[in-house]
């Protein structure tokens, strides 16, 4: 029987064999875990499509943050905050079609911002 430990990576829980976990990590026995702890450590698996869509969202967010660096100094913080709010607003959306629409809309808005910054001479 393989012993596994649940680790959280960016809100995504994955099973990692205990042998790959650093020494000194304490594994709680079932008698030490409360029911709430047990429910919070439920494993969430993503199918391939969901994984790819998640990667596209993160790529869009990274591109947006890079573009925000080109904005005038006085507008950068507000721009980053707005970008984060837009992503967080739809964080728990499960509708794949809506997510694809939001990604394409985000790419269009990012392209428009990029073009505007180019016209303003911010490179």
UniProtKB/TrEMBL annotation:
**Annotated compartments:** Mitochondrion
Query: Superkingdom of the source?
Result: Eukaryota
Does Mitochondrion count among this protein's keywords?
yes
- Location of the Complex 1 LYR protein domain: 56-111
List the InterPro entries.
Answer: Complex1_LYR_dom, Complex1_LYR_LYRM2
Show the GO cellular component annotation of the record.
Answer: mitochondrion
Sorted keywords for this record are: Mitochondrion, Transit peptide
Read off the Pfam families from this record.
Answer: Complex1_LYR (PF05347)
Keyword Cell division included in the entry's annotation = no
The free-text function statement in the UniProt record for this protein reads: Involved in efficient integration of the N-module into mitochondrial respiratory chain complex I.
Family according to the record: Belongs to the complex I LYR family.
Q: What protein am I looking at?
A: LYR motif-containing protein 2
């Amino acid at each position: 029987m393989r012993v596994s430990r649940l680790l959280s990576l960016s809100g995504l829980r994955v099973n990692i064999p205990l042998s790959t976990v650093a020494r000194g990590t304490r594994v709680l026995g079932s008698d030490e875990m409360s029911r709430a702890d047990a429910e919070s450590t439920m494993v969430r698996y993503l199918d391939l499509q969901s994984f790819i869509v998640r990667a596209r969202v993160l790529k869009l967010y990274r591109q947006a943050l890079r573009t925000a660096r080109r904005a005038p100094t006085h507008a950068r913080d507000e721009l980053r905050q707005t970008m984060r709010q837009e992503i967080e607003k739809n964080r728990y959306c499960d509708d794949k079609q809506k997510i694809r629409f939001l990604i394409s809309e985000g790419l269009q808005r990012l392209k428009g911002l990029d073009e505007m910054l180019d016209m303003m001479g911010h490179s």
